[in-house]
Amino acid sequence: MASSPYIQYSVIVPAFRENGNIRPLVTRIFTALKRIDSPVPAEQTEVIIVDDNSRDGSAETVQALQQEGYNVRIIVRTTERGLSSAVVRGFQEAAGDSMLCMDADLQHPPEYVPTMLAALTPHHTFVLGTRYGKGVEMDKDWPVHRRIISAGARLLALPLTTASDPMSGFFGVRKEAFLKARNLNSQGFKIALDLLIKAHIQPDAIAEVPFSFGVRAEGESKLTGKVMIKYLEQLAELYWYRFSGLLIFLVIFLLVAFFVLVRAWLGPPSPISQHK
């Protein structure tokens, strides 16, 4: 389905073997957008599924939804894989100036989509769905080990950004801010964190919307040991990106300080040695 020229909002959904969730996700998004109190018009919104060649019937489900009048389309990637690169591809293909990313597994409640999209403004160029907002019981339905992993991952990212939940996969960005980002890590695990740093999003440009995680309805979790290792690699790259200049300065400062201390400890050269 061709995108309408009047589209102002794009919802990007990276997916791999999520066919069972696509219909309820899309229908719930547009039901929320069609509510009388929705701040975002449904007719100005598109949904883009970026599928990594699942071959599970996802393309056929999207085609059926199109025939029912839903403004949804699917991009099937056959030569690329990965969550972050799928999100970047979706943002690149989006017709809207306000772009939202969410998971396909229904853990990001579709009913929050209108609020998240409306939070994006020329002043707030980034919106983050946060599990650490007032009144939210963080990851309340997760097992203990998942809570520990989530908290630890967030703690490791705190020196990089003031955002309360940079690990969230439920986030949005204005297109002009997205286009400023350079050298995005398409293999990284958390594209929101990468964008916050590399698009140079200032703290006052971040809007936060508290939400509680839903429960996965279909399919399996994508969290694996390999994914966690990729996240640690991504953190190392972001720390270097953000603090490399400071690290170089500290190394030079320590070398100079060491030289000064050595000279002070050895004392000034004797008059005899000066005239030799």
Automatic annotation (TrEMBL):
It catalyses: a di-trans,poly-cis-dolichyl phosphate + GDP-alpha-D-mannose = a di-trans,poly-cis-dolichyl beta-D-mannosyl phosphate + GDP. One of its GO terms (cellular component) is endoplasmic reticulum membrane. Its EC number is 2.4.1.83. GO terms for molecular function: dolichyl-phosphate beta-D-mannosyltransferase activity; metal ion binding. It holds the Pfam family Glycos_transf_2. Residues 10-178 form the Glycosyltransferase 2-like domain. GO terms for biological process: dolichol-linked oligosaccharide biosynthetic process; GPI anchor biosynthetic process; protein O-linked glycosylation via mannose. Gene3D superfamilies: Spore Coat Polysaccharide Biosynthesis Protein SpsA, Chain A (3.90.550.10). It comes from the Eukaryota. Transfers mannose from GDP-mannose to dolichol monophosphate to form dolichol phosphate mannose (Dol-P-Man) which is the mannosyl donor in pathways leading to N-glycosylation, glycosyl phosphatidylinositol membrane anchoring, and O-mannosylation of proteins. Belongs to the glycosyltransferase 2 family. This is Dolichol-phosphate mannosyltransferase subunit 1. It comes from Phlebiopsis gigantea (strain 11061_1 CR5-6). The lineage of its organism: Eukaryota, Fungi, Dikarya, Basidiomycota, Agaricomycotina.
